[in-house]
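Session log. Operator J.P. requested a structure for one protein chain; no other inputs attached. Running the standard single-chain path with token output.
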Amino acid sequence: MGAVHTGSLDAGTRSEVGVEEIDTVLRSALTPVPVRYHPVADAVGATLAEPVTAACSFPIADTAAMDGFAISGHGPRWTLRIGLCTAGQQSTIVLADGEAVRISTGAPTPRGTTAVVRSEHMLVERSGRQWILRSAPGVPRANDTRVLGQYWSAGDELASTGVRVDPALVSVALSAEVPTAAIRGPLRADVLITGDEIRASGHLVPGQVRDVLGPVLPQYLRGCDIGCRKLWRLPDDRALLRSWFELDTDAELVISVGATGRGTADRLRDVLDEIGAHMLIDGVRMRPGGSQIVARLADGRVLLALPGNPLAAIAATLVTGRSVVRALTGRRPSPPLRGRILDAAAPDRELTRVVPAWQVDGGVWRTNGAVSTPHLADLLGAHALALLPPGVGRGSLVEILPLPH
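Structure written below.
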């Protein structure tokens, strides 16, 4: 593992790591953000800091799973009572042995019910002034009752600490009468696009390029459960860059784009040294996106600095952004999504290659050959990024990072 650096940021103390080491380095170096209690319905993308424990049983009473009849006793005939049990109301009917009443899906069963049978399994006949219910011939009788606590009981743990809050978890928590959860995240980031040549609007002149990351990077960050608090653009000016890092903000993250190389105009490392940042990762052995930085600023914020080339920036975001989120929210690692690749796309002997991938018939994946980093055209129609470790061969299982769409 690359050493975690806490001093000068010069080129002699680089902390380069492999893709497989990122999680370990960041988890050992970063402290999770504080816990907050928040309405669970608005917590998608956060991480549970405490288990979700059911406050009530589900269902909270015996209810009908199908439209049909609530019956009492073994039959084979029941006298049908006048009335209907409906969802949302507790019926005042009390069934005696040999009686039945109509019931709708979701309705609490009346007292005396021994089973609920669906309408299509029963026959209703007139007998004098009464209606008689009996089983349809040749149909096995099944009990379509959802019993009290069938799915969980009060006090049951429904989701554990470290789990990502997704829409299904929100629904389960609300079903269990848990409106508030202890969470960390979703993380908020201030985003900076740097470069004298970058233009967000107006006509381009020779040497300038359009800002093609500013409009889309927040969507890729959102795919990592990072929210873009605000986006800035700055020229390659050391004093302005330092001032920007010293802005008062409530964001936990700083995401910068550009100036991660070691060219004559790249002053990011100098500025980080001046403001007392602690370098955690200075380069990842991957291509594209290897020229990236993760540092802890003096005020506690975490910097993820991305390379300026668009495809390299997106690759670094999806590879390292998720690890930053896991470290800062205490998210429990989950088994990576893996897919079998039809080709190895000319694997590198030393670096992890990050390439666009498409799932094809049979569930296997096809990858690109050489990719270009100055634009995102190679992502058009792609389903994911595939991580090809050094020396990977055709037909191997590799990690797949789904692309947000």
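Operator note: The CA atoms of residues 259 and 266 lie 4 Å apart.
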